[in-house]
Every structure is written in C-alpha cells, then in structure tokens.
C-alpha cells in the first residue's frame, strides 16, 4: 500500500507543480506586491538614499522638526581635496597649497567665514566676487547627494546637525527603493475613480452576461429546430468569434465600426453621417464592448446549451407535442426548465471569467472615451503595466488585482455552495 | 371514436417500414399491434399520433381526416415506453400539462386532475416528483396524463416493458380496467403475445411492415393464418414437423397416423408441415408416437417435456406436474389430431 500511495504522489507532482507555479505563485506575488509601493521609480530591487529639495516639503508633512529641515537644507563649507583641486585649477596652486596648509579639513558654518579665511591668506584673492566664487567651490550639501549605504547616509545627516529623533523619518523619505506600505489600499478606497471602475465592471459583467446567456439560448434553441446539416453550419459560423484570435476578431470589429468602415459606408446613402461607431460616445463604446464580448460568450453558451437540449430524451419532446404544446410552450415548459443547470453553470463561469477579462476592451476602446469603459481589470493593467505618465505603479496595480482575486474567490465559494459542488461533479445534471 | 387507417405507408430513407397497411379500430375497442422488433408497429403508432408524417395513405378519427394535422391538433393520448414524464414537474403538473397548454382555468384543471388521479389511483402522490415514485406509479401517471384530455385514441407504446414481472401483471389488468371504464379507443403496441392476448379485443399481428393477421386473440391462436402467426402466439411455442399425406394415413414423426378429419380433402399436397401445440401432445391422446425424453422443465403446476422422436424431430408437451418420468425415459404418446394445424411448403395454412 505504501508504494502505491507514493506512486500516486509521484504522478500528481507535475500537476501540483503547475498549480503551484502557475496559479498559487502569481496570487501570492500579487498579494506581496500590493503591500509595497513598487513602481518604475523604486524598481523592484533595493535602492539608494537621496534627499532632494522636494523631499523637504514631504518631510515637513511627516512631522520632521524645522530644526532638522534647516540643518538638511544648510550648506556647509569644508576644505577638502576635491575643493582644493578645483581651487588650484581656477586660482592657482599657490593659493590652494596655502589654504591646505592652514585650514585642511576645517569646516566653516557659512560662506562668509570661509571668505574671511581666504581674505586673511598671504596669496589672497583680491576681488570679493572671486572670493565668493572660490568659497562656493567648497560648499557641500546633503541635498542631491546619493548614498549607497544607509550607514553613510545617517552619518552625513548627523553631521548636518539634524535632530536625532528625526533621523528615521528622514531616512525613510530619502530611501529611493520600494517599501512596505498599506497606502495602496487607502488610496484605492479614497479615490472616486475607483468607484467608477467598480460600477463600470458591474455594468460590463451584468450586461455582457445577459447578452451571453440570452443570445446563447436563442442560438441553441433555434438551431435545435433547424435541419441537422444547416444547424451545424450555423453553429460553426457562430463559433468563429471564440476560435478567432482576439486581435483579428477585434480588428474586424474596428473595420466594421470605423468612420470609413462598413457601417458608415452602408449608412451613408441613408443620409447618416459617417462616424466612428465604436468611440463616438460612451454609449457607442459600451454597446460595442458588450456585443464583442457577448458574441464570444454566446458561442460557448450555444454549444453548451445545444448539447444539453440534445440530451433531453426525444420521447419527452414527443410527449409534450402530443400533449398539445406548441413550439413556444415546448420551449417554455420543457426545454428551458431542463436547461436550468447549464444556465446556472454558465452564469457563474462567465461571471468569473468576465470579471478578470479585459483583452477585448483593451484592444477596442482601451477604456475610453475618457475613462467611461475602464473596468477594474483594465485599470489594474493600466496602473501596473501601461500608463501615460510612464511611472508604472506595480504595487498599486497589484492592489487592484488583489481585490479582484478576493472577489473571484468569494464568488467561487458562493457558487460552489449554490451548486452543491460535490453533487455537480458526481452525477450529470441533465435530469431524466 | 372509430379510427381508420387506409393504405398507410411509411418509409425511412426510401425503405418502406410500414407497407400499405389498412386497419379499422371500432369505437371503444382495444387493439394490439403485435410483432417482433422492426416489424413497423411503433412506427405505425408514432404515425397515428402525428410524431411521424405518413408518406402515403389516410388516417381518420371518426369522420375527420387528420392525415396532415400536426400531433398538437390530433387529440391523442400517448403512453411512452419510458413514460416520458417531465422530471422537473410534480405529478400534478405532469398530469395537468395538456390542460395547461390549452390554457384551461385553474379550477377545471384541479377538478379534472383529481378525477383522473382517482381513476388511476395515484391521488396521494400528486405533490411528488417523478423520480420519487415507483415504476408502476410512473406508469399510472403517464396513463393519467394521456387520458386527461379525453383523447380520441389512447396509444400505448410497450407500456409494460419497463416493469418487473409482478407489476406487469397488475398493470396489465389496470390498463384494461381504465380503458374500459373510460371507453376510449386504444391501441397497444407490444412484442409480448401474452400481453396482447390477455387485454386486447383484437390483435393485428405485424411482420415486415405488413399486417399478417387481424383477429380476436382466441381465434388467432386457434386458427393462425400461417406458420409465423402460429409460432408467434403461444408459450411454450408450437412445434412443427414434416408429414407425408397418403390415402388414409399420414407419416409423421416416424409413425403412421390416421389422416385427420379436417385434412381429408383430396387437393392437398403430399408433403405438408404439421404444427402441434404442447397441450395437444401427451399420453391422454393415445400411443401412436414413440420417442424419448430429452429434458423436463418443472413450472410448479405443470411440467414441460421435450421429446425426441424416432425420426429426429422434437415435440413439446405440457402436462400436469408429476414425478413419473426422467430424462432418457422412453415414451409412447399420442396427438390430438383434430387440433393439428397443417401448413403448405410456403408456410401458409391449409
């Protein structure tokens, strides 16, 4: 027995690895990313320590004391080799050597003191303007200096005379790498755009689903009553949207709706001005999106419902006919009630896949016009992987995605409950 | 209502499944379409209820020609072999369905369903789903649904085939009771001759798309038109043996027998086939034929004996049960010659 059970684990391993790498790992990584502020600016590895003048305002907002801010903003003047070299180039080596002799490594609190020191020298610089210029060569500020190690940065901050208590806040602001944060979610729930995306998603999923199921049912039932050969041809045609590569499929829709495209051309003789039927208004965009996604889903519904209808015993349909039921009554009383399970199944399946799908919207309206068709998944994509500012906010985008994952899992659990999942997999749901 | 089928032909892919059949069923009569599988009996039934279109011929319900009416407009009740109950509806809804699609009012529906449920004795099951009742109860439900509109004709397609032996006996008499109580003309399609003989007024025996004989059960059993009919009716089946006719005697089964009264005509062929039913062969009919017992089958009340005759033929005999004989024993039995059935070389009755 022991051998057999290990054999089972062995056989399962490839599947487990695939589930682990392809499903579990992405979810975990999304969750991890969503609690960071990763973006193009921070990179996804470590970072340096750098304070810019802009950071000073930011630090003030974080409650860093004014004294520290002043200290950081201050420029100090130290006689060092770097400055001396520059001085020698501009004002001669004698002056440089004398300054080195007298004041090597001395720190001057401000430029005036250094200027005075320069004035007091044997080879002094006569013009005050030149002295000022020479003094500037020794000015150093912590601002705009890049430190690769945290220790170096803190040392430099202490040297400026910053208050000890402010150092953690200063360090945190100066860090250019990514950091752990919950700000993504705070930001998400505070921005009105978020709710717009949520409503868009709700509208997209609901309307597409209604179209999917309704049209799928219509196709399945109408082809059921057609002669076999004709019905098969018809079904194959309606299956094209699903087997066509999305890019090609969308391209055809674009040809169809462009202002010089099919629709505009055939409507021109009727006096309707040429227009972009896809992007003219947000209504146009919505109708297009629902038709495009709906047709893809409807083909699946058609196949699923068709096979379900055909598994209804012929004698039951005959019975309803001799019982006097018309076609319509047969559909309403016999066929539709027996399609209950396939309809429920497709509804749940399509809800989940529509929630996460955005490729057709991306390829058609790309969320436009404006943000009117920007759905949640597309917003996540735009935030994290493609946006106009060029700063890709991986962390923020992951927060979008994580919420989608949470909704998806919750919906799956509800559906499993609803379907009594164990029953569903254990026996066919076409009632006999 | 009187049902009349005139020169009915049905073809599938150019092959005639039912070939020029004419049949008249009197009002209130129950007739059986009996035959082996593939004889066209179910096809006939489906054509009468309108599921199949007739390729040729005419169908009359009373004086009304319904040949070209769809099944919805024919007012027929059908009980399907698998009952074809609607699984998503309760028993009440199943029975009420023909009235619901007619848009009858609620009170009428309730009253009629209650009446018919009482007739078929399922009044206490109306709230259940078909999956939760027994086969016999499903059968009764299907009957009730078929009868609720008071159809012009009730069509039963192998209604007892899916029941176990005990239920089959019970439902057999139930179907007959319900049919005669309602007085509805009925057609029963079956391959089971016992079923057909026990409950039907007349039997139409079909073979290869044609009606071979149409008669009362008793008459058909006693006077089959040919060897096929003779063999199809009766259990255990009739046995045949060749016979040579001479002036005053005939040679059959390795014995010389007196030529029976009803085979005295002089225009008969010399060589004929004799059909002998098991109840017409045994010790009580004399001792002209000798043979030995091949097998004994005990059925409780009766014993069946397979007897090998001296010329190699085999006859079957049915007798009250006893323990006198064993396989291998030699016997000297006789034949009830007045019941001998004679057939010519083509199998037609002489």
From TrEMBL, chain A:
Q: Is Cell membrane among this UniProt entry's keywords?
A: yes
Q: How does it sit in the membrane?
A: Multi-pass membrane protein
Which InterPro entries has this protein been placed in?
Answer: ABC_transporter_permease (IPR051393), MetI-like (IPR000515), MetI-like_sf (IPR035906)
Subcellular location, in the record's words? Answer: Cell membrane
Alphabetically sorted, this entry's keywords are: Cell membrane, Membrane, Transmembrane, Transmembrane helix, Transport
Q: Where are the transmembrane segments?
A: 202-225, 285-306, 394-419
Instruction: Spell out the Pfam families in the cross-references.
Output: BPD_transp_1
Family affiliation: Belongs to the binding-protein-dependent transport system permease family.
Official protein name in the record: ABC transporter permease
From TrEMBL, chain B:
Report the Gene3D superfamilies cross-referenced here: 2.40.50.100, Nucleic acid-binding proteins, P-loop containing nucleotide triphosphate hydrolases
State the SUPFAM superfamilies in the record.
MOP-like, P-loop containing nucleoside triphosphate hydrolases
Keyword annotations: ATP-binding, Nucleotide-binding, Transport
The source's superkingdom equals: Bacteria
* Residues annotated as domain ABC transporter: 3-233
Signal peptide residues are none
Q: Which GO terms describe its molecular function?
A: ABC-type transporter activity; ATP binding; ATP hydrolysis activity
Return the GO cellular component terms, semicolon-separated: ATP-binding cassette (ABC) transporter complex, substrate-binding subunit-containing
- A Pfam family annotated for this chain is ABC_tran
InterPro entries reported for this sequence: AAA+_ATPase, ABC_transporter-like_ATP-bd, ABC_transpr_MalK/UgpC-like, Mo/tungstate-bd_C_term_dom, NA-bd_OB-fold, P-loop_NTPase, Transp-assoc_OB_typ2
Q: Which family does it belong to?
A: Belongs to the ABC transporter superfamily.
Name the chain's protein: ABC transporter
Task: Provide the species name.
Answer: Thalassospira alkalitolerans
Taxonomy-wise, where does this protein's organism fall, top ranks first?
Bacteria, Pseudomonadati, Pseudomonadota, Alphaproteobacteria, Rhodospirillales
């Amino acid at each position: 027995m022991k051998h057999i059970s290990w054999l089972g684990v062995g056989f399962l391993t490839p599947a487990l690895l695939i589930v682990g790498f392809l499903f579990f790992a992405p979810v975990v990584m999304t969750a991890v990313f969503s609690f960071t502020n990763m973006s193009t600016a921070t990179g996804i590895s470590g970072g340096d320590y750098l304070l810019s003048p802009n950071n000073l305002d930011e630090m003030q907002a974080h409650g860093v004391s004014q004294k520290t801010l002043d200290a950081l903003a201050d420029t100090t003047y130290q006689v060092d080799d770097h400055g001396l070299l520059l001085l020698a180039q501009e004002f001669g080596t004698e002056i440089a050597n004398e300054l080195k002799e007298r004041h090597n490594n001395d720190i001057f609190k401000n430029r005036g003191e250094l200027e005075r020191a320069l004035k007091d020298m044997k080879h002094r610089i006569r013009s005050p303007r030149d002295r000022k210029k020479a003094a500037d060569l020794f000015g150093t500020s912590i601002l705009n200096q890049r430190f690769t190690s945290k220790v170096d940065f803190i040392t430099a901050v202490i040297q400026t005379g910053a208050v000890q208590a402010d150092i953690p806040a200063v360090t945190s602001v100066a860090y250019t790498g990514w950091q752990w944060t919950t700000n993504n979610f705070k930001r998400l729930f505070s921005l009105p755009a978020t709710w717009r995306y949520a409503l868009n998603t709700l509208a997209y999923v609901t309307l597409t689903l209604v179209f999917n199921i309704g049209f799928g049912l219509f196709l399945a039932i109408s082809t059921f009553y057609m002669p076999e050969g004709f019905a098969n041809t018809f079904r194959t045609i309606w299956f094209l949207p699903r087997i066509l590569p999305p890019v090609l499929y969308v391209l055809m829709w674009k040809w169809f709706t462009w202002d010089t495209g099919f629709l505009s051309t055939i409507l021109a003789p009727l006096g309707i001005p040429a227009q972009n039927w896809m992007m003219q208004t947000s209504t146009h965009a919505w109708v297009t999106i629902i038709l495009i996604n709906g047709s893809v889903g409807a083909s699946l519904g058609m196949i699923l419902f068709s096979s379900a209808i055909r598994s209804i015993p012929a004698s039951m349909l005959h019975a309803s006919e001799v019982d006097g039921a018309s076609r319509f009554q047969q559909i309403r009383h016999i066929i539709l009630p027996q399609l209950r399970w396939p309809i429920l199944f497709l509804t749940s399946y399509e809800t989940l896949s529509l929630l996460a799908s955005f490729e057709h919207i991306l390829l058609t309206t790309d969320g436009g016009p404006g943000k009117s068709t920007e759905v949640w998944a597309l917003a996540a994509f735009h935030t994290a992987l493609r946006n106009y500012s060029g700063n890709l906010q991986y962390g923020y985008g992951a927060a979008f995605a994580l919420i989608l994952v949470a909704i998806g899992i919750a919906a799956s659990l509800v559906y499993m409950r609803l379907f009594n999942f164990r029953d569903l997999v254990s026996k066919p749901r076409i009632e006999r | 209502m009187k049902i009349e089928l005139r020169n009915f032909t049905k073809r599938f892919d150019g092959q005639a499944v039912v070939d020029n059949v004419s049949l008249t069923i009197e009002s209130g009569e129950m007739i059986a379409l009996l035959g082996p599988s593939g004889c066209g009996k179910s096809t006939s039934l489906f054509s009468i209820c309108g599921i199949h279109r007739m390729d040729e011929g005419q169908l009359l319900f009373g004086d009304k020609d319904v040949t070209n009416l769809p099944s919805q407009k024919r007012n027929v009740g059908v009980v399907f072999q698998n009952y074809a109950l609607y699984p998503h509806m309760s028993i009440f809804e199943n029975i009420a369905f023909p009235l619901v699609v007619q848009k009858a009012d609620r009170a009428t529906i309730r009253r009629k369903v209650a009446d018919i449920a009482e007739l078929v004795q399922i009044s206490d099951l109306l709230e259940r789903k078909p999956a939760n009742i027994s086969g016999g109860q499903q059968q009764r439900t299907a009957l009730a649904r078929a009868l609720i509109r008071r159809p012009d004709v009730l069509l039963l397609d192998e209604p007892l085939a899916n029941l176990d032996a005990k239920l089959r006996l019970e439902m057999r008499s139930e179907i007959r009771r319900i049919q005669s109580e309602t007085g509805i003309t009925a057609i029963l399609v079956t391959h089971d001759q016992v079923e057909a003989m026990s409950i039907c007024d007349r039997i139409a025996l079909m073979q290869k798309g044609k009606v071979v004989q149409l008669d009362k059960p008793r008459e058909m059993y006693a006077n089959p038109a040919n060897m096929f009919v003779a063999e199809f009716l009766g259990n255990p089946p009739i046995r045949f043996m060749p016979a040579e006719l001479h002036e005053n005697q005939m040679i059959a089964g390795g014995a010389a027998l007196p030529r029976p009264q009803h085979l005295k005509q002089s225009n008969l062929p010399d060589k004929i086939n004799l059909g002998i039913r098991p109840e017409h062969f045994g010790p009580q009919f004399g001792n002209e034929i000798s043979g030995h017992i091949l097998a004994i089958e005990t059925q409780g009340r009766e014993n069946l004996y397979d007897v090998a005759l001296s010329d190699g033929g085999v006859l079957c005999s049915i007798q009250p049960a006893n323990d006198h004989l064993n396989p291998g024993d030699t016997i000297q039995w006789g034949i009830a010659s007045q019941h001998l059935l004679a057939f010519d070389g083509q199998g037609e009755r002489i």
